[in-house]
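Hey, weird one. I pasted the J domain-containing protein sequence into the form twice and got a warning about non-standard characters only the second time. First submission, copied straight from the form history:
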Amino acid sequence: MDPPPAAIRWRTTAVPFLVAVLVLTTISPSRAIYCDEDDCYDLLGVSQSANASEIKKAYYKLSLKHHPDKNPDPESRKLFVKIANAYEILKDEATREQYDYAIAHPEEVFYNTARYYKAYYGHKTDTRAVLVGLLLILSGFQYLNQSSRYKQAVAMVKKTPAYKNKLRALELERSGGITNKKRIPKNMDKKMEEDLSKELDLQITGTERPSVWKLVGVRFVLLPYTLGKLLLWSGCWFWRYRVKKYPYSWEDASYLTQRSLGIPHDRWATIDEATKEDLVLRRLWEKSNMERYVTEMRKESKRRR
């Protein structure tokens, strides 16, 4: 006679549940992550109060008995793997402390598991080494990117008529006024090309020649020096112009003008000296002068339209 459906359902659901409860009550999940169903101390045959020397001595004694080179029995080999794992856990003070805590607090399953995986799978590399490696990688990519962008910009500039005209003018200057009216030969003097490239550096806006001093790694290393230099500069500025009330030097007045106009340093360097002098003499770092200058620029723009 077949059992009723209710009994079948109870058997298929309750029995596995009872088995799982039985396993969890006999084997602590906190301990199981270390030596599976075994006790690490029992595997080495020592008590929980054993010191490091006793643990080491017990491991070497068992390894002589169960090492695969000494004992070819497959069961002995499996036991040696467990013994070696138990020794790795107990020989380290940190992992042994974690294991002892798991034994004393089996109810803290998630906490003990997190500590275990952090100890065994978390990176054990020195943080400083990781930081140095990261800076080197970032600096390398940064330099390659700058170099690639600069080469592309130079290649584009060399295709422009302005470049060819300057190249012809430079050839004319070098030859003393005698030049070939035909197209510029491809095998032109390399020294001439280098001289012209130096002149082109100032004309490639938005792209600069790669420099190690602008790499993130170098800047990070020089950060203490940069901060010290900035603090010293700020202190001298405050003493000279706030305390002593000295008039601004031409260099400092140019800096204030550039900052007031919001012009990048590279762009400011390309402005002709006459325009720079006119802007500096206007004292645009003063609010009233800046407002007057903006009004004039707006009127000038409307007049040109």
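That's the output from the first submission. The warning seems to come from a hidden character in my clipboard, not from the data itself. Confidence is low (pLDDT under 50) at residues 5-27.
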